[in-house]
């Protein structure tokens, strides 16, 4: 298969995925819940919400910095480069990964995402055992795992994550991937515009706020998951809280899977846009 055919195949996959993002397939119950949730949010004073959003953003920035500077992440970067050199011996640094074909980059990213889906599954299962410490660490651990997954996907497509622009973009990818399904397409279009504005930027010049009201729905789902785990942790099967383990593992796996799919589509798009100046044809307005 020629390189242009592979590019077109990936582009068609992104187009198909974009079309699916536009479909608002919520049930009547989900629409009723969304209206109820919005009314409750409107009851919270704007000052309180702004303080909460700033604290969440600050936590995300610190976690992102901690992950990217960790020895584990540096070793992972070396492993990506080592794997890339097995495909092209001319590769010396991450920016050289653009020498590879997009299907090769997708292969590298898929290796990383499969690992993180497994990590998330295991971490969710541990949370499901119902231990107080593990339950309390679930949301921070999930955030670290998913931020790290996005960083790894970014590096697999040749984007160095330790400059201010790419750091902000990865955080916005994380935020967009957590949006309710009916809002993901809007976030996707915003990310596409960000990529076009800063194609060769080092510093980020856009809006640096990440969290907003829509992101609180995901937090509510996390709390609901922990409540279900707490409810079923005493329901033992052969001495094991099997139901709560399955709830924790299944929920966390699905969240990480959705985040990795979104991040992979975005960085595939960035790669095609930066390397071949193609577009997906979606409405960018």
How would you summarize what this structure contains?
The protein is mainly alpha-helical and 285 residues long. It is built from 11 helices and no strands.
Structure description:
With 285 residues, the protein is mostly helical. It has one domain (3-276). 73% of the residues lie in helices and 0% in strands. It is built from eleven helices and no strands. It has helices at 3-22, 28-43, 46-68, 71-85, 102-127, 132-136, 138-156, 164-177, 181-197, 216-232, 242-276. Helix 5 (102-127) runs antiparallel to helix 11 and helix 10 runs antiparallel to helix 11 (242-276). The model has no long low-confidence stretch (mean pLDDT 85).
Task: Describe the SSE topology.
Blueprint: H1 3-22, H2 28-43, H3 46-68, H4 71-85, H5 102-127, H6 132-136, H7 138-156, H8 164-177, H9 181-197, H10 216-232, H11 242-276
Quantity of strands, as a count: 0
Give the averaged pLDDT, no decimals. 85
Categorize the overall geometry: globular
Q: How far apart lie the N and C ends? A: 34 Å
Query: Stretches where pLDDT falls below 50 for ≥5 residues?
Result: none
Report Rg: 20 Å
Q: Specify the structural class.
A: mainly alpha
Q: How many H/I helical runs? A: 11
Q: Give the count of structural domains.
A: 1
Residues in helix, %: over 70%
Helix and strand pattern: HHHHHHHHHHH
Strand content is under 5%
Q: What can be said about the biggest beta sheet?
A: none
Pfam families: EcsC
Organism: Bacillus weihaiensis
Protein name: ABC transporter substrate-binding protein
InterPro entries: EcsC (IPR024787)
């Amino acid at each position: 298969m020629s390189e242009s055919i592979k590019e077109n195949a990936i582009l068609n996959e992104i187009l198909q995925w974009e079309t699916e993002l536009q479909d608002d397939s919520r049930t009547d119950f989900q629409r009723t819940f969304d209206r109820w949730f919005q009314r409750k949010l409107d009851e919270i004073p704007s000052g309180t919400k702004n303080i909460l959003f700033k604290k969440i953003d600050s936590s995300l920035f610190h976690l992102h910095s901690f992950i990217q500077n960790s020895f584990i992440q540096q070793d992972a970067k070396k492993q990506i480069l080592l794997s890339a050199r097995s495909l092209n011996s001319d590769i010396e640094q991450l920016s050289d990964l653009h020498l590879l074909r997009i299907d090769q980059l997708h292969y590298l990213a898929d290796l990383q995402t499969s690992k993180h889906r497994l990590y998330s599954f295991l971490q969710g299962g541990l949370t499901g055992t119902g231990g107080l410490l593990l339950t309390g660490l679930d949301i921070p651990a999930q955030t670290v795992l998913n931020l790290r997954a996005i960083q790894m996907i970014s590096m697999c497509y040749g984007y160095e994550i330790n400059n201010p622009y790419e750091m902000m973009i990865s955080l916005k990818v994380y935020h967009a991937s957590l949006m309710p399904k009916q809002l993901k397409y809007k976030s996707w279009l915003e990310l596409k515009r960000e990529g076009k504005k800063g194609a060769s930027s080092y510093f980020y010049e856009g809006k640096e706020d990440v969290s907003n009201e829509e992101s609180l729905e995901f937090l509510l789902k996390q709390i609901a998951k922990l409540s279900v785990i707490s409810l079923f942790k005493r329901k033992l099967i052969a001495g094991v809280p099997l139901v709560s383990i399955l709830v924790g593992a299944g929920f966390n796996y699905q969240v990480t899977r959705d985040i990795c799919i979104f991040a992979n589509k975005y960085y595939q798009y960035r790669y095609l846009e930066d390397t071949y100046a193609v577009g997906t044809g979606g409405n960018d307005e």
